[in-house]
Amino acid sequence: MARSLDWMDRIACGGIPGFTRLPWPAQLKLCNVCEVRAECLEFGLETSDVWSVRRQGIVYGGVAPHDLHQMLKQRARNVAACQAPARLQVTAQLPHVQARREDLVETVTELLADRQTPEAIAARLGRTTEAIAQALHRAGVDTLAPMFEAAARRKLVVCDTDARRVVAG
Ligand code: SF4
Which among 33, 117, 162, 168 counts the fewest CB atoms within 10 Å? Predict the structure, then answer.
């Protein structure tokens, strides 16, 4: 059954421009007065990537990124143990997700304008070029995604070549 997302109408960070770009301790201060921390945390655990929360300083439900990372790892272990993955189906229209996507698009656009390569941008954001391409597509920025897809293909070619060298050697 689809979970209600009505709580998103009451998020304390909803009207704060650039909230997700604040250092996480500053984000937590606002979380402390937020009335929907429990719902936000559950949402974060359902929708976040275990490896990106710590690298990107992501906060949900008043939980610091390193603690969120640990919770996600534990949850992944539990899911694997019972073989019942239960990720919430999320639409691109959700404000929290949408805000993070807009942040990503803005950051990527700025770094490209600064003549950073897709590989350098991916390393800086702690994500793969393929993941960034997918995120850009989901955000509807189809014009920027191809250069990250090309970078991902280049990486595959290099990996494949390296693997052949190892086998041949
Ligand atoms: S991140 Fe979650 S808990 Fe923190 S202010 Fe926003 S909605 Fe509330």
Answer: 168
- pTM for the full predicted model: 0.50
Amino acid at 74: Q
What are the residue boundaries of the structural domains of the chain, listed by start? 6-91, 95-168
Structure tokens at 169: 């050697």
| Ligand 1 atom at shortest distance from the alpha carbon of 44 | 2
C-beta of residue 151 within 8 angstroms of C-beta of residue 122: yes
169 residues of the chain, pLDDT tens digit each: 556 788 999 999 988 888 888 999 999 999 999 999 999 998 888 888 877 887 888 899 999 999 988 888 888 777 666 644 444 444 444 556 666 777 788 888 888 888 889 998 888 888 888 888 888 888 788 888 899 999 888 877 666 555 566 555 5
List the structure tokens of 10: 């009451």
Q: Token pair for residue 73?
A: 């790892």
Tell me which of 22, 30, 33, 97 to substitute to probe ligand 1's pocket, judged by most ligand atoms within 8 Å of the beta carbon. 30
